[in-house]
UniProtKB/TrEMBL annotation, chain A:
Localization in the cell: Cytoplasm, Perinuclear region; Nucleus, Nucleoplasm
GO biological process, one term: tRNA methylation
Similarity comment: family membership: Belongs to the TRM112 family.
Signal peptide interval: none
UniProt-recorded Gene Ontology molecular function terms: protein heterodimerization activity
Protein name per its UniProtKB record: Multifunctional methyltransferase subunit TRM112-like protein
Domain of life per record: Eukaryota
Cellular component terms per the entry's GO annotation: nucleoplasm; perinuclear region of cytoplasm
TrEMBL record, chain B:
Keywords: Acetylation, Methyltransferase, Nucleus, RNA-binding, Transferase
A Pfam entry, by short name: UPF0020
Region annotation (Disordered) ranges: 129-154, 444-465
Gene designation: THUMPD2
Catalytic reaction annotation: guanosine in U6 snRNA + S-adenosyl-L-methionine = N(2)-methylguanosine in U6 snRNA + S-adenosyl-L-homocysteine + H(+)
Top-rank taxon, per record: Eukaryota
Compartment(s) where it occurs, according to its Swiss-Prot or TrEMBL record: Nucleus
Gene Ontology molecular function: RNA binding; snRNA methyltransferase activity; tRNA (guanine) methyltransferase activity
Annotated Gene Ontology cellular component terms: nucleus; tRNA methyltransferase complex
Organism: Neomonachus schauinslandi (Hawaiian monk seal)
Protein name from the UniProt record: U6 snRNA (guanine-N(2))-methyltransferase THUMPD2
Function: Catalytic subunit of the THUMPD2-TRM112 methyltransferase complex, that specifically mediates the S-adenosyl-L-methionine-dependent N(2)-methylation of guanosine nucleotides, most probably at position 72 (m2G72), in the U6snRNA of the major spliceosome. This modification in the U6 snRNA affects the constitutive splicing efficiency of introns that have suboptimal splice sites and can impact final mRNA levels.
Family under the similarity heading: Belongs to the methyltransferase superfamily.
GO BP annotations listed: tRNA methylation
Domain annotation THUMP: ranges: 150-266
Length: 120, 503
């Protein structure tokens, strides 16, 4: 699971609503995957990033988008690394409101809820 | 057509005429694709085949995604007159297909050779370039095993695809080869292209005839008889030798009530079978067609919440690379298969996977740009999910202005039509006929003689389908296509989210 994906996920436990974001990430196994740097693509992802969530999940991250980031290669490369090259293989995601834990296994988060937990 | 000049390095000066077979319902996609990808002109659709003219070389032709197979056209003419009682007379007509106007045969073969030579030159050039540059030792060793694997995959795919292709023919079809019991030897001794065996003199060409007869003709003739007649006529006319195992040249003939078409298959393996897909789920041509409707743009977030083996995401990621793709499924085995597929295609870095249920997506509202999904059909899909619940959740996570493209079974299609009667609030903008989407369903505009009647019926299908598509909450129907999956039919639906749900 990449950190860009973590940035999009929200808990869907019943009653939690928007307080289910962001999920608390505990990684037990992480791999760094070299991924081809595509500055255009990274620049397009920046506006979608929820920075508070990203800062919680990752260590060395710029505090926010800097002005003129679209052309700042250093910034883009840093973001590229954090968002796309860090791969969480094993760990957990925790709903901040309910405490419910969702496991990450082989890089795939399992966010299936049981019937009692679902919103409907 | 004149031989290519060395050093021109690019394409034939004038366009060559080709045709493709396509799955029923995919013809509008294919017509659009040849125009966009190959700058094709004189595009016509007649009874299961799309004819077009283009200057593109093999590399571009190979990229066609919504076609089954590609052929170089030798001849297309009015159907054989089967009303005459004498079989002999009809055989004579068949011979005339070969003997009349030998120029059309020879020029097509010349074009075919040029295409192959050009391709072979490009291969040699790229290999030659590799040598003077300092490369890692053993690079060639690394690439060869991959090539072999690709060929093996293609062989397997080819025999499987031939089965599917046969199922997709509407009319009763007989398939036979010249002097064989009718099987198609699934060889792929060379990657993709029919071997030209260097540049043989015309007399040295070996060939094989592949024949299909349908309609009235098929009641009187077997494909084998026809294949034999044509084969003998070819041997007499051009002095070629027949070779059923590994011919230089394959001749493909399709005779039916609407036309007589003769062509040369350009690639050994059908275009529809993809080298980069290890285990196909949904048919790749349909997966690509769905993705082509979704208006995928660079920087988009594309979700397939019932991704299965990931076919749709694979096709989309190959065509539109600068996009963030996420696939989700509830089944471990499907996710494992998807993972495998991603790795085999080299796309594991560009497509993320989640184990998640489509009716409870762990995503904030209005966070996704595009959703593309093949909704599972039938009883084996046992999760008790209702198509309405599925659409509701998809609607929730979609951005306003975002698109949803779905593949639905007849059952789902019916259930959604019932929505209107059950009182789900209609979008106040209501009238579908105002939607620009309708323009897209209609014939792209090329007018030709024969194709008019046929294309107007495909219009009717698309438009008729669209009329029956009610809006779903804030989802406005844009386009609807009925496509064949072989034994059953399915519907490709496109929606756009017109306004926020105000949650």
């Amino acid at each position: 699971m990449k950190l860009l994906t973590h940035n999009l996920l929200s808990s869907h436990v019943r009653g939690v609503g928007p307080r289910g974001f962001p999920l608390r990430l505990q990684a037990t196994e992480v791999r760094i995957n070299p991924v081809e740097f595509n500055p255009d693509f990274v620049a397009r992802m920046i506006p979608k990033v929820e920075w508070a969530a990203l800062l919680e999940a990752a260590d060395t991250v710029p505090k926010g988008p800097i002005e003129g980031y679209e052309h700042d290669e250093k910034f883009l490369r840093q973001m590229h690394h954090v968002l796309l090259e860090v791969d969480v293989l094993e760990g957990t995601l925790q709903c901040p409101e309910s405490g419910r834990l969702f496991p990450i296994s082989r890089g795939i988060p399992n966010m299936l809820l049981s019937d009692e937990e679902t919103e409907t | 057509m004149a031989a290519l000049q060395t050093g021109s390095g690019s394409r034939p000066a004038a366009g060559a005429r080709f045709f493709c077979t396509a799955g029923r319902g995919l013809e509008p996609f294919l017509m659009r694709e040849v125009r966009t990808r190959l700058a094709a002109t004189q595009v016509e659709y007649i009874s299961g085949k799309v004819f077009f003219t283009t200057c593109s070389d093999l590399n571009m032709l190979k990229k066609l995604k919504s076609a089954e197979r590609l052929f170089l056209l030798i001849k297309k003419q009015f159907p054989l007159n089967v009303s005459s009682v004498s079989k002999g007379k009809i055989f004579n007509e068949m011979q005339r297909l070969v003997n009349d106007d030998p120029e059309s045969w020879l020029s097509a073969i010349s074009i075919w050779k040029n295409l192959l030579e050009l391709d072979a030159k490009k291969d040699k050039l790229s290999q030659r370039d590799a040598n003077p540059l300092k490369r890692k030792v053993g690079e060639n060793d690394i690439t060869n095993p991959k090539k072999l694997k690709t060929e093996q995959m293609q062989e397997l795919q080819e025999s499987r695809e031939c089965q599917l292709e046969k199922q997709m023919e509407e009319e009763t079809v007989e398939h036979g080869g010249f002097l064989t019991s009718g099987e198609k030897p699934p060889e792929a001794s060379q990657n993709d292209v029919v071997k030209a065996a260097g540049t043989p003199d015309r007399k040295d060409l070996t060939f094989r005839v592949s024949c299909r007869c349908s309609g009235t003709l098929a009641k009187t003739f077997t494909a084998q008889e026809v294949g034999r007649v044509i084969g003998i006529a070819l041997m007499k006319q051009y002095g070629w030798k027949a070779d059923l195992r590994n011919p230089n040249l394959e001749i493909f003939i399709h005779l039916n009530d609407i036309y007589s078409v003769v062509g040369i298959p350009v690639f050994r393996v059908p275009l529809a079978s993809r080298a980069y897909i290890k285990t196909a789920g949904l048919r790749s041509t349909i997966a690509w067609a769905m993705a082509s409707l979704a208006e995928i743009k660079a920087g988009a977030f594309v979700l397939d919440p019932m991704c299965g083996l990931g076919t749709i995401l694979l096709e989309a990621a190959k065509e539109w690379p600068d996009v963030y793709y996420v696939g989700a499924d509830v089944s471990d085995s499907q996710l494992l298969g998807a993972c495998d597929n991603l790795k085999a295609a080299g796309l594991q870095d560009r497509i993320e996977l989640l184990k998640v249920s489509v009716i409870e997506l762990p995503l904030p509202s209005e966070s996704v740009d595009i959703i593309i999904s093949d909704i599972p059909f039938g009883k084996k899909f046992k999760l008790g999910k209702d198509i309405k619940n599925i659409l509701q959740e998809m609607e929730r996570v979609l951005h306003v202005g975002g698109t949803i493209v779905l593949l639905l079974s007849e059952d789902h299609h019916k259930r959604l039509q019932d929505c209107e009667q059950s009182g789900i609030p209609l979008n106040s903008k209501g009238s579908h006929t105002d939607e620009p989407g309708i323009e897209k369903c209609l014939n792209p505009g090329e007018k030709t003689d024969l194709s008019d009647t046929v294309s107007s019926s495909s219009e009717a299908i698309s438009q008729g389908g669209l009329d029956k598509m009610p809006p779903f909450g804030s989802l406005v129907p844009m386009e609807c296509y009925q496509v064949s999956l072989g034994r059953t039919d399915a519907f490709i639906y496109k929606y756009r989210k017109s306004h926020s749900l105000g949650l």
